Amino acid sequence: MPDRRLPFRARRHGGAQEPPERSMDPRAGDTPESPPVERSLIDAAIYVRGVRVASPTTLAATYRELHDRPGAMAWIGLYRPSESQLLSAAEEFGLHALAIEDAIVAHQRPKLERYGETLFVVLRAARYLDDLEEVDFGELHVFLGHNFVVTVRHAESPDLSAVRRWAEDRPELLRQGPEGVLYAILDSVVDDYAPVVGGLQNDIDEIEAEVFLGAPNVSRRIYELSREVIEFQRATRPLLRMLADLTSGFDKYHVDEELRRYLRDVEDHATIAVERVAGFRQMLEGIMRVNAIVVTQSQNEEMKQLTAASNAQNEEVKKISAYAAILFAPTLIGTVYGMNFDDMPELHWAYGYPFAVGLMVLVCVVLYLIFKRRNWL
Hints:
Layout: H1 37-40, E1 41-48, E2 51-54, H2 59-68, E3 73-79, H3 83-93, H4 97-105, E4 111-115, E5 118-129, E6 134-144, E7 148-153, H5 160-168, H6 171-174, H7 178-191, H8 193-213, H9 218-248, H10 257-337, H11 352-373
Parallel strand pairs: 3-7
Antiparallel strand pairs: 1-2, 1-3, 4-5, 5-6, 6-7
């Protein structure tokens, strides 16, 4: 499909995967769970007419460079910064205390808020982990003013180093100011939703097959995937409201006409992602109902088999009991007439033996007929 976006729009996802931003501190190695203050400043740059003219290594140096260059824009990238760093940026750029508190605490829902001339945006990035077959979510806070952009990340994603390099290759985008940077960030986050949607679609297709094959752990997998879809929906659905709020302020804040078109394109892609995710949730609800029916049917079949086996066993027990009763009758008679007593009736009777045998046969025949009539035999 041809790319209908900006003249400076090129697919960021082509080619080799670029590594995430690294700290400018030469002592920085692998990014720790809680980086020290000197490693929290991932990158800072001063741009004049869309071109990077300075790369300060501290926040104080960034502030000085911005003041010394009229018409410049600062883009500061922070990764899990300390409270003192955020308070320093708040004092320098006049950031609202509530927005700073949100950036410190993190775990915020996606939103867009204006505090005077400052725009505060919270985004939820997502990436699909093929090896684990699960979605990894990140959180990004963006502060924008008339001449600055401050990004605060609390996870490895999104990879803003790739976004920065992509934007720096297009000075005409950075000449749009902070709005151009916001577009690049929004476009990157929304573009990264596409592989996640594809991964979730593959998982759902696999689960559908497993449901009808009667896989033993499919119910657990449906539940886990449903949780991921709900979390993904929480990350994507607020974007539509956020982008609508941005577009509604185009005239008031004199946003360039070309940039308006590009942001609308991002809104279209976000709408597609939101609709796909909503469809996934409905599909999983349907799959869960089908799985419940399949499980119920399987249990019913098992119960039928158990019932049939139990009935067959009962029939065998009845036959054994009937024959045992028939054999017990002559045994009882034979036991009585086998007693060694002198004064027993018919003991010295000439027909005593035939009588006893006849009685045994008669009792056995009567019992056999009774059991036969009751379908025990």
